[in-house]
Amino acid sequence: MAFDPLHTPKGAVIMIPQEDYEAMQETLKLLSDKQSFKALLDSHETRKKGEIPQSHSIKDIFCDLQN
Length: 67
Prior knowledge:
Helix content is about 50%, strand content about 10%.
């Protein structure tokens, strides 16, 4: 995807579709969380080895959202 920036006195402005922006925000959120990032890397390694990834319960996945 190529973008042509608009240059202004205050800096460059790049317009992208909202869906792309939201996807980038979600990716940045995932990559900035150390636990999520490690889980992502571990799952890629597991798949590279041809193994079936370990499954988790909903309670385990959303444990940080509990009261």
